[in-house]
Amino acid sequence: MLDILQYWSVGRKIKKVSSGWYSGDAPCCIHNGETQDKRKRGGIKLTDDGWWYHCFNCNYNATFTLGRPVSLKAKQILDWIGVDKAEIFRLNLESLRQKSVDDLLYERTRIQHKPISLPEVELPDDARVITSEDTKYIKYLESRGMNYKQYPFMISPSSPGRYKNRIIVPFTNKNKIVGYTSRFLDDIKPKFLSEQHPDYVFGLDLQHPEWNYAIVTEGIFDAISINGLAVLRSQLNQKQIQQLKQLYREIIVVPDQDKPGLKLIDQAIEYNFSVSIPKWRDVGVKDVNDAVQKYGKLATLLLILKYKISSNVNNSNGLVRIAKKKLVKRLNAK
To answer: Are 29 and 57 in contact (CB under 8 A)?
Structure first.
């Protein structure tokens, strides 16, 4: 197997620290909008069947595990430290030849899982889909960084009291209505009233089979803003966790950057989900939808991926805990 340390040490001084990491100048920073690292903030940790790279400056992560294809980020790191493309190609072939029996059994097991079934729920009698003439509701959605055609948003303008002044978001599961939430447009609390099953995960019906990631948020508008998933609370239950795992892709948890959101980080650590905590709290951004309003959808997605800490490598939970401590520090400073 290719010796990544041998390549990384060419023109750089690297040293092994007590935790088992090798540290040296990070080659990724200048490719990610940062100045060239000269403070040895890059780290490589060797594993029994590969390695893990993390930059403590620009938060770039890459992993390689024998038996799996060389990922795009791993290819980039190898290229940046001077590995010839032909060598990277040979490494990829060698890795695929080593595909383990465990992986094959995993592929067989994943076919046998069945999605959970949820009971159907009736929508309010007067609910109807928003049209182009419903300008008040459209303006509210636009203020949240969304288009009214982005999802089948509904309203009930003939309802009594504040119920005529709400946007209804239907919850679907296998193309059936299994609940809904109402977001009231006045300033009276509660702002949301929901009819939902505790095991429901919003957005499962909207995921594409070819996507490599599933981004998990807390709020409904967070998820709709980026075609993600919403757990609609700050803690997951076992049925929700089961549904996320059955997507068979990398789960990236993006918690709200407040104290309740810390609970979701702890669960991500427990179940080996990836976590992304972008550095946007200091600019008044608390959650994904705030970020979409400030930066736009594409930039928000890029920030989420930039600050993603992968879960499929050894000792990654330690870095998640470090990121959590930094968030706690920022929260306490407010």
So the answer is: yes
